């Protein structure tokens, strides 16, 4: 469901543009008094008002082109005193509309105390032309302001040229991702787009075309409480209320939604920033959309890219990519042609995810699954597909040749004879990573307007379906041996798998599938209010045959479904797993079946909590043996919040199940 702020934002922008165009048309059509709204009227300046402005060192080629908007009740009164206080040492040209308002400043939010103390009005500006300016704004020491609307309580100070190019039509942008040459995937975006819309276009077989929507922008807008300062060149900008541009080098073709920011020596061309998005600290960003709470900088180079909500990139380069929610690239690294719509991953220092050049054209691309971790100094040679291998870790120093991997939660590591893959490694050997990530995504998810689709769980129908397909492949290799390749086990990519690794992968996926299934069973019992005695679960929910989880067919080269696209709920997949993992035996009753497998869930939860603890404790033990003072400088596994949460959940499940089995209290 689209957040109402998306619709409201676009509506406000369309309304503001239409009003500005209407006012300018009225100002150019006649010098007589004209009504511009129910409360306001427009007229030319009275002679004494012109005299008052000239006494303040103001000038104009033709004062007949300067128009004044006041309340309808005072339209015939002289405002010479107010104008002389508000406007000093400013030159006007062409059509200029000055707005006198009586509304008090309802915002205490101004960036610095110095700016807050400045009186409103126009002061020491070399030229203002073809513009609408509310005199409650603060407009100081600017070289040239043309074709611009400046709203009440906005601030523009110490800037060079602010102008509009007749060739610019802000409001719609096409960003080509994937192959940089010889193809590409054009994505048409507007300022209020979300990731589901981007993904829909990315997956479309035909090119997406969109005509220019109504409300296209044809003049600069610096709206209420917006701030622009210390920037030499600005062209074709739209700042929604409370957006800011501070100390940038050059800005052109930019739309900033509320609280968005461009600052500190950044150079920006053809960008859209949603709420609280920012480009900072000497970054260069071109042809890019930053969704809510996304940040580029410091020292980022971003070109032809869509940064999803809560994405942070800094110090490195990103080209022709889609980077999904909660992804971090905090170090010097490279992403080129990376289609990563579900994000939630990390890019390590020196990672080169960008070998898209075949020696002929840079026409290759990479697809990445949710939570993929590109380790230090990895080299990824395109094409590579990890879209069906979520939460896979490519270890430091590993080089991936072109390949497709469909083993989720895996570790790919360089070895003496190529790369080895350990399917399900995160589930078995590093579950702390997943527990910490689950907590991290919940606490770092700041983009409120994308909240409805970014909060999916790691273990859910789609990821468990991928685990099931991966286990099926591991269970039935084409031939037996000590070492397996893609030929024997589809989904391994260009990596080797040992027999020990195969068995470990089967165990990891099986434990995860069974825990997921039994969690669903327990949740069903709790939500249904069913009691142990008299419960006929098989007749209620498990008697009917359920097809295998075909959320994605990993044998085909296709995108797995995104969480917001899935029509199959967790319980449907969990029912299938219950039937296949824990079939009802004629030798036991349903009550015995329930008790046995609820106790199995207790064991699985305890085992999971223990492995989460152990995977962090291994780091503690190794650190103490290597680094002096390690114990005093690092939090212990015993004190880790993520570990404590997993342990508490295991205890809670055990206590609740035992109560249910004893039938003494309602399960909660």
From TrEMBL:
Ranges of residues in domain DUF4954: 43-464
SUPFAM superfamilies per record: Trimeric LpxA-like enzymes
Name of protein: DUF4954 domain-containing protein
């Amino acid at each position: 469901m689209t957040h109402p702020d998306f619709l409201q934002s676009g509506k406000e922008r369309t309304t503001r543009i239409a009003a500005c165009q209407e006012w300018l048309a009225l100002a150019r059509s006649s010098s007589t008094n004209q009504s511009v709204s129910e409360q306001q009227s427009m007229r030319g300046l009275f002679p004494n008002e012109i005299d008052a402005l000239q006494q303040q060192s103001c000038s104009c080629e033709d004062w007949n082109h300067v128009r004044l908007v006041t309340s309808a009740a005072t339209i015939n009164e002289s405002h010479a005193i107010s104008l002389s206080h508000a406007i000093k040492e400013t030159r006007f040209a062409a059509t200029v509309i000055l707005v006198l308002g009586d509304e008090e400043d309802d915002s205490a939010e101004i960036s610095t105390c110095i700016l807050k103390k400045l009186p409103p009005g126009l002061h020491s500006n070399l030229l203002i032309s073809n513009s609408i300016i509310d005199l409650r704004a603060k407009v100081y020491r600017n070289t040239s302001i043309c074709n611009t609307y400046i709203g009440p309580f906005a601030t523009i100070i110490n800037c060079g040229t602010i102008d509009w190019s007749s060739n610019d039509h802000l409001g719609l942008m096409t960003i080509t991702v994937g192959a940089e040459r010889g193809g590409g995937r054009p994505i048409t975006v507007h300022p209020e787009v979300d990731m589901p819309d981007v993904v829909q276009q990315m997956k479309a077989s035909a090119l997406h075309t969109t005509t220019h929507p109504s409300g296209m922008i044809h003049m600069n807008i610096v709206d209420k409480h917006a701030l622009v300062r210390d920037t030499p060149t600005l062209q074709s900008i739209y700042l929604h209320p409370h957006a800011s541009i501070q100390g940038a080098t050059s800005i052109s073709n930019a739309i900033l939604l509320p609280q968005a920011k461009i600052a500190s020596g950044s150079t920006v061309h053809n960008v859209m920033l949603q709420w609280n998005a920012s480009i900072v600290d000497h970054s260069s960003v071109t042809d890019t959309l930053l969704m809510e709470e996304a940040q580029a900088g410091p020292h980022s180079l971003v070109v032809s890219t869509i940064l999803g909500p809560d994405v942070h990139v800094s110090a490195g380069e990103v080209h022709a990519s889609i980077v999904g929610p909660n992804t971090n690239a905090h170090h010097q690294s490279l992403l080129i042609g990376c289609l990563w719509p579900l994000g939630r991953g990390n890019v390590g220092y020196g990672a080169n995810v960008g070998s898209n050049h075949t020696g002929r054209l840079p026409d290759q691309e990479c697809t990445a699954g949710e939570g993929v971790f590109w380790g230090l100094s990895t080299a990824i040679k395109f094409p590579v597909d990890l879209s069906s291998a979520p939460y896979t870790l490519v270890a430091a120093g590993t080089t991936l040749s072109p390949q497709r991997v469909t083993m989720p939660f895996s570790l790919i590591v360089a070895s003496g004879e190529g790369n080895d893959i350990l399917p399900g490694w995160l589930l078995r050997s590093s579950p702390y990573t997943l527990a910490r990530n689950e907590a991290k995504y919940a606490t770092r998810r700041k983009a409120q307007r994308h909240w409805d689709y970014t909060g999916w769980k790691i273990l859910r129908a789609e990821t468990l379906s991928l685990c099931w397909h991966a286990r099926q492949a591991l269970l039935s290799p084409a031939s037996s041996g000590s070492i397996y390749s893609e030929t024997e086990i589809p989904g391994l990519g260009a990596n080797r798998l040992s027999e020990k690794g195969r068995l470990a992968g089967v165990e990891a996926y099986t434990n995860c599938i069974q825990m997921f299934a039994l969690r669903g069973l327990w949740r069903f019992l709790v939500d249904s209010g069913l009691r142990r005695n008299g419960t006929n679960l098989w007749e209620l929910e498990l008697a009917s045959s359920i097809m295998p989880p075909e959320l994605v067919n990993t044998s085909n080269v296709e995108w797995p479904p995104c969480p917001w696209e899935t029509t199959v709920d967790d319980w449907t997949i969990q029912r299938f797993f219950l039937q296949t993992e824990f079939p009802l035996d004629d030798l036991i009753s349903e009550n015995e079946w329930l008790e046995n497998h609820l106790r199995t869930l207790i064991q699985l939860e305890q085992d999971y909590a223990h492995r989460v603890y152990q995977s962090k404790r291994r780091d503690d033990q190794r650190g103490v043996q290597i680094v002096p003072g390690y114990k005093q400088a690092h939090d212990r596994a015993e004190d880790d919040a993520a570990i404590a949460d997993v342990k508490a959940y295991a205890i809670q499940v055990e206590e609740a199940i035992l109560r249910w089995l004893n039938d003494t209290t309602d399960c909660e």
